[in-house]
């Protein structure tokens, strides 16, 4: 390792660069620079040499060509302990560049603007910057490469304590950081460009993603598991990561999972709606004319399970709703907003997390799950029934208007329950929720067991077909009068016969909503 004698600085983000450059000059390090960076440093009284003066080649093509020159890349790439490299460098009058300080054109910020043009995005694709970064990082044993302003102080301190040098571990740390940075940069460009041109495959051959870590979480699903929260770049849909947190403890891994599940179900309803989720499953769902009424109805479905749950509301939280919620221990309340009086009341329990989120947006992208050695990607389940009365009635008795309304509610809810899923419901709230069992009849039994009120005249929603008539016979005994289900079993005729025998009205959706 040798003392740093020459540094090349070319940055888009100029945070702290003047102070850093002044420290370099105080250590006797020559500075090369380009364009706007050179002007910024000169204006601050820092003496620099323009790269074009160093290479004897002008900047051209509107700034596209600045640093792509053998005197730059030779100075970065030559191995200081290789006599042949040194001979070639001297023969071609190339001087060493011992430090590169570069951050890239703001492509991500540019394409995040709603009115950005394609040409503007293209001009913000950096070419020279990534090339210098990669060259310097490849030769990290001999070149210090800095891409993050947060590392300026660390490097200056090390140069001062090591007589103008940096240690191997530091250089290696910086090089790894660069390759992560440039990989993310190229991924953003690739994903942006994939939006244009001829329509391609829904699922690309290479699934490139680059998520930015927002924070470490206290732990994962269990205390012995570590966890972190990452943000998807260039994401323009409903984002729980971007929710405004007004108060409360730090969000946990399970908090985020339960909140996500609650939001998915809540978005099914245009009316004032309340959803309570526990362990990633709904335990209370209701709609009403007022948000406080919706919450009370949702809570009363299963008060025991609601304890310690996540509440999502489709309207601003008012004082009346806040007073009702405060009767219960809850982890999180998610809503579009909170009235001042509601905030004052809820502040009495500062550990409750209050999240503000615009739920009118839709999630975008794929559903993704990691498996051993790979991942699965699928489209989000956006399937809906626009007109419940248009569905095929397969029984002798047609549903009543009330039953149709209850079917519509039940179908929206069972879509977001873990399979096998059975819900007993009225037209505006769940009555009994049977979720996640390995047989459909067991889910029906669980739903009936969980019901606190009579199920007489209720409607049943089933996320998938009934494989046998036993499920229909059971829900008939429980009091259900109508069923909405996908159909498609080889024993549909037996299932329909069971419904007719029990005077149950049944419709087939032709659409399944498995959720594993």
Describe this structure in words.
There is one protein chain. This protein is an alpha/beta fold. The protein folds into 3 domains: 6-193, Rossmann fold; 243-356, AICAR transformylase, duplication domain (Cytidine Deaminase, domain 2, 3-Layer(aba) Sandwich); 388-508, AICAR transformylase, duplication domain (Cytidine Deaminase, domain 2), CATH 3.40.140. It is 36% helix and 19% strand. The protein contains 19 helices and 21 strands. Helix 12 (291-301) runs parallel beside helix 14 (319-325). The two termini are 55 Å apart. The model has no long low-confidence stretch (mean pLDDT 90).
Total helical elements: 19
Question: What would you call the shape?
Answer: elongated
Rg over C-alpha atoms, rounded to the nearest angstrom? 31 Å
CATH topology assignment of the largest domain: Rossmann fold
Helical fraction equals 25-40%
Which structural category do the helix and sheet elements fall into?
alpha/beta
Low-confidence stretches: none
Examine the secondary-structure arrangement and name the CATH architecture of the largest domain. 3-Layer(aba) Sandwich
Q: CATH homologous superfamily of the largest domain - what is it?
A: Methylglyoxal synthase-like domain
End-to-end gap: 55 Å
Which structural traits does this protein have?
516 residues, alpha/beta, Rossmann fold, Cytidine Deaminase, domain 2, 3 domains, six-stranded mixed beta sheet, 19 helices, 21 strands, 36% helix
Task: Summarize the model shown.
The chain contains 19 helices and 21 strands.
Helix and strand topology:
Blueprint: E1 6-11, H1 17-26, E2 30-33, H2 35-43, E3 49-50, H3 51-55, H4 70-77, H5 83-91, E4 99-103, H6 107-111, H7 118-123, H8 128-138, E5 144-146, H9 152-161, H10 168-193, E6 212-217, E7 227-231, E8 244-247, H11 253-266, E9 273-278, E10 281-287, H12 291-301, H13 303-306, E11 309-313, H14 319-325, E12 330-335, H15 340-346, E13 353-356, E14 366-371, E15 374-379, E16 392-393, H16 401-414, E17 421-425, E18 430-435, H17 440-450, E19 459-462, H18 470-478, E20 482-485, H19 492-501, E21 505-508
Parallel strand pairs: 1-2, 1-4, 2-3, 4-5, 11-12, 12-13, 19-20, 20-21
Antiparallel strand pairs: 6-7, 8-13, 9-10, 9-11, 14-15, 16-21, 17-18, 17-19
Helix pairs in contact: 4-8, 8-10, 12-14, 14-15, 17-18
């Amino acid at each position: 390792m040798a003392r740093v004698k020459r540094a090349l600085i070319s940055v888009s983000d100029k945070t702290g660069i003047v102070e850093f450059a002044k420290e370099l000059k105080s250590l006797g390090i020559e500075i090369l620079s380009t364009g706007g960076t050179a002007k910024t440093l000169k204006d601050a009284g820092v003496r620099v040499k323009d790269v074009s003066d160093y290479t004897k080649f002008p900047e051209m093509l509107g700034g596209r060509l600045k640093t792509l020159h053998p005197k730059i890349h030779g100075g970065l790439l030559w191995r200081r302990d290789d006599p042949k490299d040194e001979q070639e460098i001297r023969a071609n009058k190339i001087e060493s560049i011992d430090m590169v300080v570069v951050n890239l054109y703001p492509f991500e910020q540019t394409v995040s603007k709603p009115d950005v043009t394609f040409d503007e995005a293209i001009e913000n694709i950096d070419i020279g910057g990534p090339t210098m970064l990669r060259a310097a990082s490849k030769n990290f044993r001999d070149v210090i490469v800095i891409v993050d302003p947060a590392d300026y102080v660390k490097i200056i301190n090390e140069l001062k304590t090591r007589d103008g040098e940096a240690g191997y571990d530091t250089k290696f740390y910086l090089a790894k950081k660069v390759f992560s940075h440039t990989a993310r940069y190229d991924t953003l460009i690739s994903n942006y460009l994939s939006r244009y041109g001829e329509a391609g495959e829904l699922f690309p051959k290479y699934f490139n993603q680059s998520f930015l870590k927002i924070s470490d979480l206290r732990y994962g699903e269990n205390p012995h598991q570590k966890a972190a929260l990452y943000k998807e770049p260039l994401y323009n849909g409903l984002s729980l990561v971007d929710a405004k947190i007004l108060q409360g403890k730090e969000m946990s891994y399970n908090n985020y999972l339960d909140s996500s599940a609650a939001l998915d179900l809540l978005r099914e309803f245009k009316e004032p709606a309340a959803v309570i989720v526990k362990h990633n499953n709904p335990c209370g769902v209701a709609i009403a004319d007022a948000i406080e009424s919706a919450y009370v109805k949702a809570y009363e479905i299963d008060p025991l399970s609601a304890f310690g749950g996540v509440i999502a509301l489709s309207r601003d939280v008012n004082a009346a709703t806040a007073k009702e919620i405060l009767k219960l221990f809850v982890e999180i309340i998610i809503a579009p907003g909170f009235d001042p009086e509601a905030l004052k009341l809820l502040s009495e329990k500062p550990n409750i997390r209050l999240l503000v989120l615009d739920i009118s947006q839709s999630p975008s992208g794929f559903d993704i799950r990691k498996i051993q050695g790979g991942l699965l990607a699928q489209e989000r389940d956006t399937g809906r029934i626009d007109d419940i009365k248009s569905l095929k009635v397969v029984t002798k008795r047609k549903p009543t208007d009330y039953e149709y309304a209850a079917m519509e509610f039940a179908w929206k809810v069972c879509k977001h329950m873990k399979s096998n899923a059975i819900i007993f419901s009225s037209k505006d709230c769940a009555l009994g929720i049977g979720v996640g069992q390995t047989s459909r009849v067991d889910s029906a039994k669980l739903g009936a067991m969980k019901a606190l009120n009579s199920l007489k005249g209720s409607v049943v929603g089933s996320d998938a077909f009934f494989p046998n008539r036993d499920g229909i016979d059971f829900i008939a005994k429980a009091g259900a009068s109508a069923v909405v289900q996908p159909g498609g079993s080889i024993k549909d005729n037996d299932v329909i016969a069971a419904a007719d025998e029990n005077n149950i009205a049944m419709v087939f959706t032709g659409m399944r909503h498995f959720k594993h």
